[in-house]
Amino acid sequence: MKKKYIILSIITLVLLIAFVTSFNYFKITNTYIDDSFNNQTKITKGISMNLEQTAGAGDYKTVTQSGWPTEGYKFNAELSRCENGSKISWDDTNNTVVVSGNLSDKCYVYFDIYQPTLAEYIKSQYTGTQGDNALYYHNSTLTNGAGDNSYRYAGASDSVNNYICLGSDAATCPDANLFRIIGVFGDQTKVIRAKSVGEKEWDTNNSNKWSSSSLNTYLNGEYLTSLGTLAEKIVTTTWKVGGGTYGNILTPVPATAHQYEVGSSSSTTTVNKKIGLMYVSDYGFAASQEAWTTKLSSYNSNRSKNWLYLGSNEWTISRVSDDAILVFDVRSAGVVNSGDASYSREVRPSFNLESSVKYVSGSGSMSDPVRVN
Q: What is the pLDDT of residues 247-298, one digit of tens each?
């Protein structure tokens, strides 16, 4: 009687294994046979693994290795397929390919070289310690921060590696293509030109309404056209251009200026354009964290530890809201002040890059700026 139970148990176990296996994971084997299908090589167990050789090129090569790639590659669900209708997918939890269907099927698995977006790359440089790699995560717990969950660079210019070359493949990035990264806002990266395009009036008619200003017209006309194909990588942004009073932008600390420029207390006046300028609060938060308790009208003591400090009188995009002609600027001394819109000041265009822009290379130093595609 016991023998019958043992025989039945063995048969049941065999059937159970056969059933589970037909819907289980295919495992990689190093045993290959030549096959003419799509000029690939096929694993005898039914799976061919193909790895991209050059990022973004689609130049796949069948490889022989004992495990699925878990770093530096991303499963390509669009290309991966089976000949006879089995379903193929990637299991993030177990880091393995899952094939549901017929064991006799022949499947081809593709992996692309993983290219993080520019925003993802920048966020990855934040270690969790505020200020490491000159990056600050402005969440609700960051003392005196913006509280908008942005990632911003801050510190002295020579200690902040946030240079980025846009629209040029030259070994040495031309001045016209060299920018600096202000930070990441959501999934978009905001940049500003490293050098000024020259002195220009904010508005030739001496009006501080950005929507009709001559500088806005220039930046989103002649200047945008000069960028060529780079313009396609720039997202149309809703710029908050209502500005604020001296009391809520000029004389307080950066966190207060931010609240009135673009935060919960900001004006509803907006303009949808690709190119703008920096905000006063962008300038304020570009200084080292200890400076964020200083009034912006007294920021001259912080100029040596602020990478956005240009050393000349420079326009911002924010107007003095209770005046018809005054616009906030950063003075050569490093303080925030204001001037008539008809005055000439240095101009550094600023814009947000499309979230799809990919990081390619570069440490972010001036000699090795970040490169994207």
A: 999 999 999 999 999 999 999 999 999 999 999 999 999 999 999 999 999 9
Q: Where are the alpha helices (H) located in the chain, listed in sequence order?
A: 2-21, 118-124, 214-218, 224-226, 254-261, 280-285
Compute the distance between CA of residue 331 and CA of residue 277 in angstroms, rounded to an integer. 15
SS (H, E, C) the chain: CHHHHHHHHHHHHHHHHHHHHCCCCCCCCCCEEECCHHHCEEECCCEEEEEECCCCCCCEEECCCCCCCCCCEEECCCCCEECCCCEEEEECCCCEEEEECCCCCCEEEEEEECCCEHHHHHHHCCCCCCCHHHEEEECCCCCCCCCCCEEEECCCHHHCCCEEECCCCCCCCCHHHEEEEEEEECCEEEEEECCCCCEEECCCCCCCCHHHCHHHHHHHHHHHHHCHHHHHHECCEEEECCCECHHHHHCCCHHHHHHHHCCCCCCCCEEEECCECCCHHHHHHCECHHHHHCCHHHHHHHHHHECCCCCCCEEEEEEECCCCCEEEEECCCCCEEEEECCCEEECCCEEEECCCCEEEECCCCCCCCEEEC
What are the tens digits of pLDDT across the range 214-258? Answer: 999 999 999 999 999 999 999 999 999 999 999 999 999 999 999
Residue 104: what residue type? S
pLDDT tens digits, 121-152: 999 999 999 999 999 999 999 999 999 999 99
Residues 6 or more apart from 9 whose CB is under 8 A from it? none
Output the pTM of the full model.
0.81
pLDDT at 10: 44
Backbone angles phi, psi at 352, to 5 degrees: -105, 135
Task: Quote the CA–CA distance of 244 and 327 in Å, as a whole number.
Answer: 10
Residue 99: count of CB within 10 angstroms of its CB: 21
How many Å apart are CA 3 and CA 364, to the nearest integer? 74
- The span from the CA of 138 to the CA of 152, in Å, is 7
pLDDT in tens, 34-75: 333 333 333 336 789 999 998 888 999 999 888 898 788 999
